[in-house]
Design goal:
Elements lengths: L25 H12 L6 E5 L6 H8 L4 H6 L2 E7 L6 H18 L5 H11 L5 H17 L3 E7 L4 H4 L4 H12 L6 E6 L3 H8 L9 E5 L6
Helix pairs in contact: 1-2, 4-5, 4-6, 5-6
Amino acid sequence: MMIFDFENPFADYGNIVGGERFIGRKESLKVLENRVVRPQEPGNLAVIGEPRIGKSSLVYKAIIERKEELMARKLLPIWINLGTYDRAAIFLRSLVTTCYDELEYLDWVTDTIDRTFERVLQDELSWSEGYGRIQRFFQRVRQENIRVLFILDEFDHARFLFKDDTSGFQGLRELSYRPEWRVTFITTSRRSIRDIEIQTRAISTFDGIFHKHYLSMFDE
């Protein structure tokens, strides 16, 4: 029986790679730095590439591993796996609930934020009223000089989540477009946002507010 005295570096193949095991990707890390991390007002970024090429690991390395540093600047990164949702309305409301949980943990919740959060949880009469409450929640967060950064992993799932419904894409676009309540999005997907929109048969202008970064294989 042959006994190996070294650790298999690929034992956890398929999982997010971070820390010392993350190698290369200097140019891609620079893209995230210049688009999202460094600016006072970050821009949206779509990370696009083949399955298992390292999209999630790249964003994790650039953003989540620096979470403490970013929060010191009142930039709050929040990771959401889009594939875990089956209804657009629940997903959009979860943007508020996950954000509130983070704010509460950090003791950043004010009375105004708390009141608007409670209103989001109430049963709304219409899509427009419920969405308006979501906007007002993020407006109150912005008024506290807190900038929210949502990482939407597995964004390909949006072709099912928002199928035949432009309100999902338009709702995300409006949250990031208006300065009063602007949040920032990083998406990871195999397809471009434009292709995902086409597959939903619900074309919007969401794709137009993103810088696209295509992640390829290692070149060395």
